[in-house]
Every structure is written in C-alpha cells, then in structure tokens.
Design a protein that fits this description.
Elements lengths: L9 H11 L20 H13 L12 H17 L7 E5 L2 H19 L7 E5 L5 H8 L3 E5 L11 H6 L5 E7 L11 H11 L3 E4 L7 H6 L14 E7 L11 E5 L2 H4 L4 E3 L7 E3 L8 H39 L3 E2 L7 E5 L5 H10 L5 E3 L4 E5 L8 H16 L13
Parallel strand pairs: 2-3, 2-4, 4-5, 5-6
Antiparallel strand pairs: 1-7, 6-7, 8-9, 10-11, 11-13, 12-13
Helix pairs in contact: 2-10, 3-10, 4-5, 11-12
This protein binds pyridoxal-5'-phosphate.
Length: 412
Amino acid sequence: MDMPKTGQDWQTLRKEMESRGAGDAKWRDGKTAVYIFNAGPEIARVQHEAYTLYMSENGLGPLAFPSLAQMEREVIEMALSILHGPEGAAGSMTSGGTDSITMAIKAARDFARVHKGLEGPGNFVLPQSAHPAFDKGAHLMDIEVRRIPVKTDGSYEADPEAMGKACDEETVMMIGSAPNFPHGIIDPIEALGKVAEAKDVWLHTDACVGGYFAPFARMNGVAVPPFDFEVSAVKSISADLHKYGYAAKGASTVLFRNAELYDFMPFDTQNWSGAPMKTPTLAGTRPGGAIAAAWAVMNVLGVEGYCEKQGLVCKTRERAEAGLKKLGFEILGNPVLGLIAFRHPMHDSFKLYSEMYRKGWFTSITIDPPSLHLMLSPKHAEVIDLYLSDLKESCAIVAAGEEGEKVEARYN
Ligand SMILES: *Cc1c(COP(=O)(O)O)cnc(C)c1O
C-alpha cells in the first residue's frame, strides 16, 4: 500500500478500522483466554479515559511532567505494599514483562560484575517452564541460559536441587515463576531462596502474570506460598500491571529489594552532545497514558476491588476444574490462581484445541506435556459453562474420529 497522496476522511477510516476488527478473536464475548484480561466495561472505561488524559505526555521527562513522576512513584509504592517490599525497596514502571525481566537481568549482571568479580558473560539458571523473555534478555546481553527440567512428581514445580547443581561462579541469577505461564504453577520460591543464599546468587521472582493476583488470592484465603520479598533471598520481582492488574497495555513493574540493587538498573549518559540523560529502564520515551491508566485502575479498584475480581477468577477456575474432571480431564499440578493446563487420557489435546477453535474459542496450549490451557478473566464467569459444554461436544467429535483439520496453535 502506498501512502495516500491526499489525507483521508477520519470518520470513513474509523469505520474501516472497526470493520477490520470483525475477523479478530472474539474477546468481548469472553471466548478468548489468552492475550486479553477482561475485567468488564467499568474498568475498560477507566483505562480508556485515564489513558487519553495523559496520552501525549512523556514519562521520559519527570521534570516536565511531575504529575506522571508522582503517579509512577505511587504505582511502585502500591506494588511494594502488596508484595512485602521492605523499607527502602525501589522500582520502576516499564512497558511490559519482557522489559521488566530484561532490566532485572541487566541489574543482576552488573551487580555480579561489581560485587562478584564477574568478567565473562555469565549465566543464569531457570526452570524449563520460565518465560521466553529470559532467553531474549540473555541473548541481548550474551548471557548463557541454563534451563533445568521441572520436577517429575506431577507438581510441575521448579526443581531447587537440580537448579542449585547447575549454578557456578559465573551464575548471575536464579529464577522462579509465580506462577509460570504454561502450567499456572507457583514455583517453590522459599526452597529456591535457600539454594540461592547457599550459592550467593541473586534470586528473581517472575510474577509477571501473578504479581497483582496472588496477594489478593491470599487475602481471600487461598493457600499461596511465599513468593515475593517476604522470601529474603528474592532480590527482584517482575509484575505486570497490564495482566491481572487490569491496566491498559504497556504497563509493568520491576521491583528491587533495596536502592543499592535498583541503582544497577538505570543508564546515565553524560558523554553525548545533548543534555545529560538518565533513563531508569530500556525505553526513552515512555507513554504517559500507560502510567496514568495503571495508576487510575489501581485506585479505582483498591484492595477490595482486586480481592473481588481475583476471587471471581478463582471461583471460575474451580468451576472449570470441577467440570473438566467430570469430563475425565486431568489438571496439571495444583494451580491456585487464574491459569490452568489440563489433558484427557483418551483424546489428543491438539485435536480438541482445533475443535474448540472452530467453535470460536481462542486459547493457548501447553506443549510439555501436550495440554489445553486457560488464562481466566473475570469475564469468564459468564461463559465457563459454555466452554465446558463446547468441550464436551469436542470430546465426542474427537472420540468418534470425526474431527476436522488440526489448527496449529502458536503465538506468531
Ligand atoms: C506475560 C509473561 C511474561 C512477559 O510479559 P510481556 O508483558 O508479554 O512482555 C513473562 N513471564 C510470565 C510468567 C508471563 O506470563
């Protein structure tokens, strides 16, 4: 497409944009259980209005926009207040989980250079179930990635002993997830902490998908094991606001146990032609809208609002588990938040996935072991029964050998 020579009428373009969305995943009906966190129309309105209010402002300039600097500070304080941040803990907002993780790796690597005499590229040790963002960050910094199989006892948890054995002098970081994405399982962060302390290694908790969920689930009475700064070995945490924080996309947090660790993150550039520029994270320009929308949603919901939303998600997951078990499915491990993976002893998971896709469901899958996957939102309370009845039909279709073509499940 060439750029139009003459500008086009916005109202016409707007209609065209709306009609282009018609072929997208049907997330507004609740039939999407990946990519989207649907907390309902009220929260969507807050996101929209708060984002628009600060859409043009730039988080790169705290002196020009003290409003944004204050909102970011308060977002970080609120985050630390629910994640057992000790006195002096610090953090920044980033554009997303990958950004938060990359910055935590950078800080840990630079810490190791200064305090542990690291000269080579270093390595880090993480469970097989940890997110690909770690590979991306490692590749950027030439760090070696050591993925260690999860436990084979059916828990799908990280294996602290095996991970400890994989550490050496060059290890800059150990990682546990709370929870991991493929199985929705919270790794044994306390046990990983013991190993990390014995080996004198920085422990990072990847709470990208659980950081704004697990604390509220615990307040609701769910048995959530310690995973945040409550565990003394945890030096940094990544927690995404644009997931179960229900903020507009482009908002995450990266948090450090103290200011000394945090100080390994920012870039301070003095030797160029322009004015001195110190940026806390990877980004230069930072969207004011994403900061503002996160601040607004956190304040609109408050602790009680989050407890209510996450309570609804947990209840929906329990309903899903009960229905799935009735259909003969096995739930992988013991998920306690909003993500589950499950498989049927008789039916090929990916054949089932394909039938569900044809019925309009857009979800994720887990490869190891081959399973179906759901990441639930408050909206799913309304459609989980439909999901289960569609799945029952899909099982019958697959059992009869009448399934259609396999749909390939991937992220790209
Ligand atoms: C989503 C996710 C990430 C990456 O976050 P993005 O915002 O997609 O970059 C990292 N870790 C876990 C466990 C996640 O669920």
